[in-house]
Amino acid sequence: MSEVIHTTLLIKHVTSRMLMDTRVQGNAFSLDACDKGWQLVVEDVDTDVMRTIQTELAELNLFYFEETEAEHGRSISKWWLYDTALPELITDEAARRLTLIVNTRTGYSNEHVSKQ
Questions:
Q1: Domains detected in the chain
Q2: pTM for the whole thing?
């Protein structure tokens, strides 16, 4: 049985400029299925980062990783999260909380890509 030992969220501009790396910055976050697809809620987000994400909303790449440990060792599952139109964004600057809702989650590895 595999056990998730670490999750990471990366928010990047399409030019590969890193806007947020939860593993480096330590932000708590959740990823859950919702009626519209997938909802990401990120805590303790800097106001400037929120504003940049709002400005660059149409040009974001979101990546989610789960590192698991099993009998055979560690493995990493990877997903690309995006919206086929425009992600829905909800910001709460007072609470330092950012919510993004997208309609597509695509799993990938170095070998293949599969929509989920």
A1: 3-115 (2.30.110)
A2: 0.87
Q: Give the pair of three-digit tokens for residue 1.
A: 């049985």
Phi/psi at 53 (5° precision): -60, -40
User: What are the distances in angstroms from CA 36 to CA 94, 105, 116?
Assistant: 26, 12, 14
pLDDT tens readout for residues 50-99: 999 999 999 999 999 999 887 777 888 999 999 999 999 999 999 999 99
Dist. CA 29–CA 22, nearest whole Å? 8
Burial letters 17-43, b for 16+ CB under 10 A, else e: eebbebeeeebebebeeeeebbbbbbe
